[in-house]
Amino acid sequence: MSEGAPAAKRARAGRDGNPIEVGYWKIKGLGQPIRLLLVWAGLEWKDTLYECVQKNDGTYDKSSWFDVKHKLGLDFPNLPYLIDGDLKITQTNAILQHLADRAGLSGTTEEERAKANMLFGLSGDVRRRYTGAAYSPKFDEMRPGLVESIEQKLAELDQFLGSREYLVGQGVTVSDLLWYDLIDQFLVLDPTILDQRCPNLRRFHSRFHNDPKIVAYRESDRFITQMNNTQAFFK
């Protein structure tokens, strides 16, 4: 980008003026909250997608990632990764925190930031239970207990949200986007999961799901619908 480019244009791009790069599998997984944050913040970004392909013998080929894993200049090579100019980082929470800080979505007070971090941790706990079941060959028998467990956590989150529009403070934070993504996936797992105990989260999900920025992204070619990777038993 030329030195004469408008400041607003530079602010939306990466640190070097180029689009921010997000590397991840061609699924939602841990990459989707990052993508949603970039969409919400109006930052310029591009996906670098890696595919896990099932071979004829039933095994899975992940060479699209492993062939380049140690060639990208990452200190701790892993997926997802983010390249923002000369900054190259891995670890989902570190990436989300970097982008949230840049976009002003970390919370405006010490209390808000503390609660946003609490919701980060809670989302990780729930996601691990969900993905652990999704990748298990016993998924079908685990499903009822999984739904019950998630429903309980969502009921607690519903009570925490109450009548507020956002989970933390008076505006959107990264924790809202994290939980919108999780709830969206849980509604595929069980379309009724919010019906009995989570009226506030139903309203919360609808607000983000129907926001023009999110709608435009969902209707675009870059939106990914597959939630878990090829070897999962719930995709």
Report on this structure.
- The radius of gyration is 18 Å and the shape is globular.
- Residues 1-10 have low confidence and may be disordered.
- The chain is an alpha+beta fold.
- The chain folds into 2 domains: 7-104, Glutathione S-transferase Yfyf (Class Pi), Chain A, domain 2; 110-217, Glutathione S-transferase Yfyf (Class Pi), Chain A, domain 2 (Up-down Bundle).
- A 4-stranded mixed beta sheet has the order 2-1-5-6, covered by helices on one side. Strands 3-4 form a two-stranded antiparallel ribbon.
- Strand 3 (53-54) and strand 4 (60-61) form a beta hairpin.
- It has 9 helices and 6 strands.
The CATH topology of the largest domain corresponds to Glutathione S-transferase Yfyf (Class Pi), Chain A, domain 2
Order of helices and strands: HEHEEEHEEHHHHHH
Biggest sheet strand line-up:
2-1-5-6
Number of domains: 2
| Oligomer category | single chain
**Count of discrete alpha- or pi-helical segments spanning 4 or more residues:** 9
